[in-house]
Every structure is written in structure tokens, then in C-alpha cells.
Amino acid sequence: MKCLVTGGNVRVLGKAAHSLSRIGDELYLEPLEDGLSLRTVNTSRSAFACFLFAPLFFQHYQAARPPQRQPPRCKVLMKSFLAVFRSLAALEKTVERCCITLSPESNRLVVQLHCKHGVTKTYNLSFQECESLQAIFDPAECPHLLRAQARVLVEAVSPFSPALSEVTLGVSRGRRVVFRSYLEDDTGSPEFRRVRQPFPQHPL
Q1: Which top EC class is named for this enzyme in its record (predicted)?
Q2: What dotted CATH number matches 2-129?
Q3: Which of 51, 100, 104, 117 is deepest in the core (most CB within 10 A)?
Q4: Quick one: pLDDT at residue 185?
């Protein structure tokens, strides 16, 4: 597998990696004919996320090379992959293109950042071959649907401390979505904190 990302799309790829790192500790890469899939799952396997970058996203995209019958699939440590795209601001200012190569023969995922003034940064990441990561669920068994703009959801959770381990989402009788969390003060007694964020009141 070999792909080349240029311009502002390098930052988009980095933002996707940062988003996935909030969910899982491992990144699953699967080159497909219809694009490069980046996936992750949390440790309890209760949350799954996937980004699929179509071939048009890349300046060059090759899922597999002959005589490979199928593209290789692998997983890498999220922390290792995230180190490549550590600073999103620096990516936009200094990186002109990013080349990603997956070679089963060398057991390495090679990421090269071609920067301004002829500087090239090369990252050789170890990987493990794996099966395709798929979320298995039946949408028919999910009677409720919540859909909102990302900006609205960000505003809803922004009052909570980033140190919180979890935030509970619920729906009140008036069909208002409610975010809740429990905090402990210095005395050890639980403090109840609730944020109410109204959403368009369509039936859920």
C-alpha cells in the first residue's frame, strides 16, 4: 500500500488521527479499493469509530501491489501514529506532503513528511497484521436516533472538566437531551452537576 497526501489534506489526516486517539489505543489501517480506512475501538469494545478516505483525497493511492491478492491489513499503537501528527498547526505551516507506505515484507509502516526547505522526516512504525475491524450491530434494534451538528455537541460538553472519566447522556420527558456528570469535592462528598442543552424537539 502506498498513498500520497498533499496540502491541507495532511492536516485533515492529522485531525482524524487525533479524533480516533480519544477512543482507542490502537489504530487499524485497511487499504481498500474505495479508499484508506482508519478505525479504532475502545478497550471495552463499546465504542467504535471509522474514517474512510476516498482515493480522490490522495494525490496518489495504491491499495495493493501485484502479486498481492488483497491489500495488507494492520494495526499500530495509536501513540506511535499520533507522534507523526503531534502538532496540527505545524503540519499546516511546514508540511507540503505526506507519503504513507505499508510493506508486509519489512513489517513497517513508513510515514514520510516532506517539509519546506527540503526537510524530510521519516517515521518507521512497527505493526501487527490483523483481521478487518468491523462494528457488528443491527440498526433496527436501535429505536432512538440522536442527530446534531458537531458544534452543538461541543458546546454541550464544554462546561465539563476534561478530567472527567465519563458524561452521561439522557432524554427527559420533554424530549430534551441532558448531559450529566458526578464530581467529588475536597471533602469526598459527591457533587451533582448537570447541563441541559435543548436540541430540535423531534421524536426520538
Answers
A1: hydrolase
A2: 3.70.10.10
A3: 100
A4: 57
